[in-house]
Amino acid sequence: MSEEPDGGLPESIELAWGLRERPGKGPKRALSLKGIIDAAVRIGSAEGLEAVSMSRVAAEAGASTMALYRYVPSKNALLSLMLDEVMGGPPRLPGPEEGWRAALSAWVWALRATMRRNPWLLRAPITGPPIMPNNVRWMEAGLRAMRGMGLDGGARISLIILLSNYVRSEVRMTHELATAFQEASTSESEVVRGYGAMLTALTDPGRFPELHAILEDGVFEGAVGTPDDDFVFGLETLLDGLEALVRRGGAPDA
């Protein structure tokens, strides 16, 4: 089933932006686009993105599968709509008087909090640049946070991609590790200590001098920090790099 209407925009995008209504004329129905999206989100939140199908969502919404197609043209369209619904809009960020670093840091932390509340959405493939309403609002908020940096539009878009990818990668990794630890009935500290012991047994100082210097420092034997510790280190390192970029006067020539 094609999603491309005469106007050139995919139907899911028109639906998300309120440019098209479904279904057509007829008596008022109990089913609605919002109800369908909410049903899909309930399934995704409880059982993961893999559990979302048109038939399953129809059953959750109390309708037939064919009835769903009167509102949503395809499963891919439904996934786009539900993921945008879960993202929601960005929060209010610090004003320009607090500087771009505070605003951009707040944007990153808010994006991380949203993704951590809904880690299942990270299973959705990235098929293109952000175009759904809430995703575009997040992009606008991030660009607004960069005012005062003196960077051109291309550099600001590149920074949105860089920071979004950092958040996405960190949230997915920490979620998958936490899930693995839980399924193995172990703790991160136990895994880290075991990892250090295996490295010590498998490597020698002659071939891996840098690694063994770290092992001798007991890095893998001490207390394990929280995911926030690693996230703060990475974010502050990125922001320090942006400070240097701003002082230099913008991105280097390609």
Automatic annotation (TrEMBL):
User: Which stretches hold the DNA-binding feature?
Assistant: 53-72
Q: Report domain HTH tetR-type positions.
A: 30-90
Q: Does the keyword Protein transport apply?
A: no
Q: Which PROSITE patterns match?
A: HTH_TETR_2
Supply the alphabetized keyword list.
DNA-binding, Transcription, Transcription regulation
Family matches, as InterPro entries? Homeodomain-like_sf, HTH-type_TetR-like_transc_reg, HTH_TetR, Repressor_TetR_C, Tet_transcr_reg_TetR-rel_C_sf
| Protein name as it appears in the record | TetR/AcrR family transcriptional regulator
**Origin species:** Actinomadura vinacea
